[in-house]
Specification:
Layout lengths: L1 H26 L10 H16 L3 H38 L4 H32 L2 H26 L19
Helix pairs in contact: 2-5, 3-4, 4-5
Length: about 180
């Protein structure tokens, strides 16, 4: 009797679980865009960088405050670049600006791009102060790789996972001193 009761309960749980899963499948009417929030992306980025830079606890403690300050500075510069690009684009579309006004808007835009590049070099110098040279040199490359991976992940999830997933850089071999 006790055995039959356990078997019946297990069978009911299995059937209810199956129905629940099939109901969830029918609710999805196609690929859904994943909902990523900034905290999730930051967590993924920290894990990605820590893994592929092979940061020691001491390096991580020194690196992350410097990196975060640099990222805040870059975000402000990017915002200015986007703003100047929008202003230039709008002026070109409207066609009511003089050549001198367009020249001024274009110089502002290209000046902002130059500022972003100068900040990249400055940040590289800052990273060298807290990381070994090989790790400092990888930071920007890993930023680009992380961004590509995130885009692939978003596209792959939106298309139903047919993109093959993001490619990961190979972890570097341990340095011998």
């Amino acid at each position: 009797m006790k055995r039959n009761l356990i078997f019946s309960l297990a069978l009911m749980m299995f059937l209810l679980g199956s129905l629940s899963l099939s109901a969830q499948d029918t609710e999805k009417k196609g690929p859904q865009r994943p909902m990523f929030n900034k905290d999730q992306i930051v967590s993924q980025k920290i894990a990605f960088f820590t893994k592929f830079l092979d940061l020691t606890p001491d390096e991580a403690q020194k690196f992350w405050p410097v990196y975060n300050a640099c990222q805040d500075e870059m975000e402000k510069a990017r915002k200015e670049t986007r703003k100047s690009a929008f202003t230039l684009s709008k002026a070109l579309k409207e066609g009511d600006k003089t050549d001198e006004e367009i020249r001024s808007l274009a110089e502002t835009y290209y000046g902002n791009l130059d500022r972003e590049n100068a900040l990249q070099k400055l940040h590289y110098a800052e990273y060298q102060k807290v990381l070994p040279i090989k790790k400092a040199a990888r930071v920007r490359l890993l930023e680009e790789q992380f961004t590509r991976n995130l885009i692939m992940q978003l596209r792959g999830n939106y298309r139903g996972g047919k993109s093959g997933g993001p490619k990961q850089p190979q972890p570097k071999e341990k340095e011998t001193k």
